[in-house]
Automatic annotation (TrEMBL), chains A, B, C:
Chain residues that bind ATP: R117, T170
UniProt cross-references to NCBIfam families, sorted A to Z: PRK09355.1 (NF006830), thiM (TIGR00694)
Source organism (scientific name): Faecalibacillus faecis
Signal peptide start-end: none
A single GO BP: thiamine biosynthetic process
MF annotations from Gene Ontology: ATP binding; hydroxyethylthiazole kinase activity; magnesium ion binding
Its job: Catalyzes the phosphorylation of the hydroxyl group of 4-methyl-5-beta-hydroxyethylthiazole (THZ).
Catalytic activity: 5-(2-hydroxyethyl)-4-methylthiazole + ATP = 4-methyl-5-(2-phosphooxyethyl)-thiazole + ADP + H(+)
Keywords: ATP-binding, Kinase, Magnesium, Metal-binding, Nucleotide-binding, Thiamine biosynthesis, Transferase
InterPro entries: Hyethyz_kinase, Ribokinase-like
Keyword Manganese set for record: no
Protein name per its UniProtKB record: Hydroxyethylthiazole kinase
Length: 275, 275, 275
């Protein structure tokens, strides 16, 4: 199944509109290219609706948001919804400032997202802030473990039910779920957190995968998460004694570029979470 | 001839003012350094005239334009014209939005460019939008081939006549021409299109070359295009089985850094297009 | 001593707020991670005070300043002062435009900096512009040499006295001083100047080191300068015949990632400047 997801990205080469932060934007563009899609970065209010219209999918990342780009995110998101384009939200650092929290909640309010991807703290902040967790125990820990995974899945599925979006929570164990189905993924390497922007890159990758597989959003998101994690593993085996986080960054993107659908299929370590 | 062009960049180390996009700006700065010139990036309206004044050349790239930076481009371009500094235009994505098209046309209207560099679609959009192609068959294909090259050259030379700028059209076959003379270049590698920003990098490189060779703008542009393509070839021979687009990006800049004038002279694959 | 400084960065992993330019921001983030600290980049006026409040230190870099971000720098700097967080100023290109000079002087006026890091020209411009050098011979050369080093130290110490900040002047020979003590550092490699942003990276590194060692600001700054220079040396030994400035950039960050406190202690080449 994952095999097909990656094949479709390579074959269809969807054009992805990214409104993203200036810290990791170059890596995001190169990751989109590495998986076989094409990136466009544009964030001016005057052009985002038109740019989104010529694209297949939209990726919104609030990493270095400002008043100018927040407005652009809203315009682009609404246009994408109107055109039924898949839209990803990466709520970078939500909870770290009122501006981030309010912006993320406003985006949730006004835009229908296909996928929301963040770490557990970001997703918790969003879910609590948006008041969607009533009746759900949101006092889950800030780390997903084998012990608390079912609890986190229940929480994420409740959030998925309220938002209509697939929820992707990434960390040592990654979770991908919609309201009905949930997968736990164990690909990846701890050293990925020593590179800036692996999360941003995954969001851009996810936008590429779901845009090429619009009828299989859950599987496409799962495939994107496995691709990123597997690339992190493959890149890690390549590190020499002198390599550090900068070379690792390059090797991960390289690994995505070289990954075959078969490698993804064989290397993906995921399983459905069953209750 | 090309030998001299690169030698002059290394000897004079011209300071290049870049108003460019935030996606590929770091690569542009490192490419300018790799060829022997020095970069300054500055885009605030309050300072661009002064910054341009202390530089030797200006590179304007509309990749992530916004209302603030568009104004800065106009101010800097006019100041550069006043000081007779060479100016490059990279009309990234022109045609993808009204804002891009109108901005590029306004820039063309108000600034005298020394070189306009883009892919064939961008140059066509510009030429048609600026109404300069009357009487010229602009229904050329979106790809330059051995079959249609003379047609594309006629079109580009007409655009050069109207704008007074050297036109550089890059793709599988690159074209560099002024109204009188045209060169076709066959350096480069298809994999370069899997890296974000090789076009932006070439524009920054072109600004460096023409600034160091103000009396030989056509040859300097040709040298920049050959340098970029040859670097793409040399870097490609260096790729291992595990390398992908991220390592390739680094290797291309490395190859420019290490390229000797003699290597450029010997590796450049260009010929004049004669009618 | 330097050993401890690096150990503390790794153990405490301070969160560093960076308001910096979009050219080298990704490298700054990866360098902060490489040394063991954590970066946040945020520059909107609405959130910088809150972001600075959750961080341990602040790094202000005026490389691509604009009216929006200048205001953010002032807000964040004042908040950091209020909270007694260490603050670094990197006055990139001060003197190249009135906007840069006036902004840097305004920042100096309104914010108490812990460390000001720049090249000799930048520091001279700042010192002269701020009128702090009265009675001091500021006609020092634009290069620090073994011959003029005492003269430069006297000048830098006078500036330190006026600003209350540690002054770090980097070049072939680096200087780090407060009003009482001065160190000359001979780590580094000339090729570092062929990479964009090694100065910016050092400022981000300095913010990381002083935030983890608040009781030893001078030693922490010295340690950061030695770390950057030593990484430049170690990375240089790793270069192959085909590597250029792009690979060198990666290798330097890699070297910081892999540097042990003991390596720093043994590789640091500094001595106190005594009168």
């Amino acid at each position: 199944m994952l095999e097909e997801m990656l094949k479709n990205v390579r074959e269809k080469s969807p054009l992805i509109h990214n409104i993203t932060n200036y810290v990791t934007v170059n890596d995001c563009a190169n990751v989109v290219l590495a998986c076989g899609a094409s990136p466009i970065m544009a964030d001016d209010q005057e052009e985002v609706a038109e740019i989104t219209s010529i694209c297949t999918g939209l990726n919104i990342n609030i990493g270095t948001l400002n008043s100018r780009t927040i407005e652009s995110m809203l315009i682009a998101g609404k246009k994408a919804n109107e055109l039924h384009h898949p839209v990803v939200l990466d709520p970078v650092g939500v909870g770290a400032s009122t501006l981030r929290t309010q912006t993320a909640l406003k985006l949730l309010d006004e835009i229908q997202f296909s996928v929301i991807r963040g770490n557990i703290s970001e997703i918790k902040t969003l879910a609590l802030g948006s008041g969607t967790t009533k009746g759900v125990d949101a006092n889950i820990a800030d780390k997903v473990t084998k012990e608390n995974i079912k609890e986190v899945v229940r929480f994420a599925q409740e959030f998925s039910r309220k938002t209509g979006a697939i929820i992707a929570i990434t960390g040592a164990i990654d979770l991908v779920c919609n309201k009905e189905k949930a997968f736990a993924i164990e690909n990846g390497h701890a050293m990925m957190s020593s590179i800036t922007g692996t999360g941003c890159q995954l969001s851009a990758l996810t936008a590429s995968f779901i845009s090429a597989n619009p009828a299989h959003l859950l599987e496409a998101t799962l495939a994107a998460v496995c691709t990123m994690g597997l690339a992190g593993e493959m890149a890690h085996t390549r590190l020499t004694r002198l390599d550090g986080n900068a070379s690792y960054r390059n090797y991960i993107i390289d690994a995505i570029y070289n990954m075959t659908p078969q490698q993804l299929q064989e290397g993906a370590k995921y399983q459905e979470v069953l209750f």
